[in-house]
């Protein structure tokens, strides 16, 4: 699959992402204003660019931690069984926590991760995802904040990969396969 030729069409520009992050951060500050410290949890690896931009717009005392859940691997299919490959370094009991994800697709990943973190008795637990594909949902899960709703397209860029490539694109693009002759 990953050796097929493809082009990337821009779906969401870097400018549109930056503007949306400013809006989202105003809402997050409203929600968590007065927190002693917000633990911002990035889901590796896809959220690393989003979390970097997000925390620099968040005018709150924060701490950053990361968690890695099993994902697509190098394929384009979702795995319904979610495994934790790397857990948080810190305890979150009694803490304010914001989970940061790149994309909610079937919903299995964020559903599993938020249930796991909720079982550790945080004070408040919220989630944010840059992208949401509601038409693909298989479990009843809604993120508290969503950057953009998108159609059922395979996207890359802004931290999100295809076979580990294209994470460094500054925008969100959609992958379009082309015939070898093109
Ligand atoms: P879910 O468990 O909600 O089905 O999937 C969540 C994960 O699947 C996302 O965090 C992301 O890693 C991956 N994913 C979903 N849609 C896409 C996509 O369009 N492109 C890429 N590269 N990964 C995706
Ligand atoms: Mg992910
Ligand atoms: Mg991936």
Write the layout of secondary structure elements.
Blueprint: E1 6-12, H1 14-32, E2 38-44, H2 48-57, E3 62-69, E4 84-86, E5 96-104, H3 108-118, E6 124-132, E7 145-149, E8 155-156, E9 172-177
Parallel strand pairs: 2-3, 2-5, 5-6, 6-7
Antiparallel strand pairs: 1-9, 3-4, 8-9
This protein binds guanosine-5'-monophosphate and magnesium ion (2 copies).
Report what the structure shows:
With 182 residues, this protein is an alpha/beta fold. It has one domain: 3-Layer(aba) Sandwich (Rossmann fold). Helices cover 22% and strands 31% of the residues. It contains 3 helices and 9 strands. The protein has helices at 14-32, 48-57, 108-118; strands at residues 6-12, 38-44, 62-69, 84-86, 96-104, 124-132, 145-149, 155-156, 172-177. The strands form 2 sheets. It has a 6-stranded mixed β-sheet, sandwiched between helices. It has a 3-stranded antiparallel β-sheet with strand order 1-9-8. Strand 5, helix 3 (108-118) and strand 6 form a beta-alpha-beta unit. Guanosine-5'-monophosphate binds next to strand 5, helix 3 and strand 8. It holds the Pfam family Pribosyltran. This is Hypoxanthine phosphoribosyltransferase. One of its GO terms (molecular function) is nucleotide binding. One of its GO terms (biological process) is IMP salvage. Its EC number is 2.4.2.8.
Give the key terms.
alpha/beta; binds guanosine-5'-monophosphate; single chain; Rossmann fold; 182 residues; binds magnesium ion; three-stranded antiparallel beta sheet; 3 helices
| Arrangement of strands in the largest sheet | 4-3-2-5-6-7
**CATH C-level label:** Alpha Beta
Q: What distance separates the N and C termini?
A: 17 Å
In total, how many domains does the architecture comprise?
1
Could you tell me the mean pLDDT? 94
Query: Low-confidence spans: pLDDT under 50, at least 5 residues?
Result: none
Taking all Cα atoms into account, the compactness measure Rg is 16 Å
What is the annotated CATH architecture? Answer: 3-Layer(aba) Sandwich
Any ligands, ions or cofactors bound here, and which? Answer: guanosine-5'-monophosphate, magnesium ion
Sketch the topology as an H/E string, one letter per element: EHEHEEEHEEEE
* Total E-strand runs: 9
Largest sheet: 6 strands, mixed
- Percent helix, as a range, is 10-25%
CATH topology: Rossmann fold
Number of helices: 3
């Amino acid at each position: 699959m990953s050796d097929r030729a493809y082009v990337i069409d821009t779906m969401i520009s870097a400018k549109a992402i930056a503007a949306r992050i400013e809006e989202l951060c105003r809402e997050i500050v409203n929600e968590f204003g007065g927190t002693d410290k917000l633990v911002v949890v990035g889901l590796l690896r896809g959220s690393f660019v989003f979390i970097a931009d997000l925390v620099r717009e968040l005018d709150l005392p924060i701490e950053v931690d990361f968690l890695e859940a099993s994902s697509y691997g190098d394929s384009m299919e979702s795995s319904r069984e979610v495994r934790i490959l790397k857990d948080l370094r810190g305890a979150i009991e009694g803490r304010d926590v914001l989970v940061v994800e790149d994309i909610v697709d079937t919903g299995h990943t964020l559903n599993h991760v938020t249930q796991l973190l909720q079982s550790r008795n945080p004070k408040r637990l919220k989630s944010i995802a840059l992208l949401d594909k509601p038409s693909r949902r298989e479990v009843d899960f809604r993120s508290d904040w969503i950057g953009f709703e998108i159609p059922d397209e395979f996207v890359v860029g802004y931290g999100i990969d295809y076979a580990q490539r294209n994470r460094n694109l500054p925008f969100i693009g959609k992958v379009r396969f082309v015939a070898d002759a093109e």
